[in-house]
């Protein structure tokens, strides 16, 4: 089932220090009233872990929600440096990005680990934002659907198997060749991809499960007009352009 809220997810990655993150968050807070007020629109800020606590205080009574950028695949235990889904929930987050291509690349995350992480999040009633996407090479060789199937299948099967939660899940299609490059796929290509993701997801999870379909990769004031025409998209995952409140706000206003 389609998500009835359009979501804008600001992925701040590790672009800012703790103090810089707080500064940018205050700017968002001060300008909250400027953000287009339409029903069924939600802004989700995803700072790095240390900033989640101060930001959860700042936005406590506001419409802005918070998400983490990752979580541990384990519930608890001797896992130095990791952060469990329970802590993320206790901090007041509602969302968590999982399987971002940068984590798959730099931290060698596997699809099984990503499925474990999704399970941990659902146990805590957190909404996972599961990132998938093909490389440039796969795109050139027209192997996008194979790549997507390999990434999605283990995660969707796990969600279907555990059947513990009815939280909405989100699938963020982020072609790796688009992230940070200024290039976005054509609408024809995006329509094909999202139709495939929707069909595939419904086949495994059934039609009743609420699934958000997000696009990420070079979302900007320049690319938003074209992206807006892809009707299956119910949200955007925004990196670079979310680090500047004005740019972010312009994107929101153009939707
Ligand atoms: P970008 O990043 O908007 O800077 O391309 C998106 C992402 O990596 O989530």
Structure write-up:
This protein is of the alpha/beta class and 255 residues long. It has one domain (6-254): TIM Barrel, CATH 3.20.20.70. The chain is built from 10 helices and 8 strands. It has helices at residues 18-30, 49-58, 85-90, 101-106, 111-123, 136-140, 144-162, 187-205, 224-227, 245-254, and strands at residues 6-11, 41-46, 65-68, 95-98, 127-132, 169-173, 211-216, 235-238. Strands 1-2-3-4-5-6-7-8 form an 8-stranded parallel β-barrel, surrounded by 4 helices. Helix 2 (49-58) links the parallel strand 2 (41-46) and strand 3 (65-68). Helix 1 runs parallel beside helix 2 and helix 7 (144-162) packs parallel to helix 8 (187-205). The chain is globular, with a radius of gyration of 17 Å. The site of 2-phosphoglycolic acid has 13 residues, from strand 8.
Offer a few descriptive terms.
alpha/beta; 10 helices; binds 2-phosphoglycolic acid; 255 residues
CATH topology: TIM Barrel
Identify the overall geometry.
Answer: globular
Nearest-integer average pLDDT: 94
Helix content: 40-55%
What is the CATH architecture assignment? Alpha-Beta Barrel
Please render the helix and strand layout as text.
Blueprint: E1 6-11, H1 18-30, E2 41-46, H2 49-58, E3 65-68, H3 85-90, E4 95-98, H4 101-106, H5 111-123, E5 127-132, H6 136-140, H7 144-162, E6 169-173, H8 187-205, E7 211-216, H9 224-227, E8 235-238, H10 245-254
Parallel strand pairs: 1-2, 1-8, 2-3, 3-4, 4-5, 5-6, 6-7, 7-8
Helix pairs in contact: 1-2, 5-7, 7-8
The structure holds 2-phosphoglycolic acid.
């Amino acid at each position: 089932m389609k998500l009835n809220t359009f979501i804008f997810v600001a992925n701040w990655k590790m672009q800012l220090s703790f103090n810089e993150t707080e500064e940018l968050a205050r700017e968002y807070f001060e300008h909250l009233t400027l953000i287009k007020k339409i029903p069924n629109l939600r802004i989700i800020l995803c700072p790095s872990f240390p900033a989640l606590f101060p930001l959860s205080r700042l936005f406590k009574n506001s419409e802005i929600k918070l998400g983490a950028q990752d979580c541990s695949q384990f519930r608890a235990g001797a896992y130095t440096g990791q952060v469990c889904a329970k802590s993320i929930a206790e901090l007041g987050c509602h969302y968590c990005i999982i399987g971002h291509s940068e984590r798959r690349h730099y931290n060698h995350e596997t699809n099984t680990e990503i499925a474990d992480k999704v399970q941990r999040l659902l146990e805590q009633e957190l909404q996972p934002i599961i990132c998938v996407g093909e490389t440039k090479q796969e795109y050139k060789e027209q192997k996008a659907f194979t790549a997507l199937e390999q990434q999605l299948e283990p995660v969707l099967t796990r969600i279907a198997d555990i059947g513990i939660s009815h939280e909405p899940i989100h699938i963020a299609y982020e072609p790796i060749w688009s992230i940070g490059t200024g290039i976005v796929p054509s609408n024809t290509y995006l329509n094909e991809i999202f139709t495939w993701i929707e069909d595939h997801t419904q086949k495994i999870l059934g039609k009743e499960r609420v699934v958000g379909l997000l696009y990420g990769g070079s979302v900007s004031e320049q690319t938003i007009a074209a992206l807006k025409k892809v009707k299956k998209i119910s949200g955007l995952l925004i990196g670079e352009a979310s680090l500047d409140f004005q740019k972010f706000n312009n994107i929101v206003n153009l939707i």
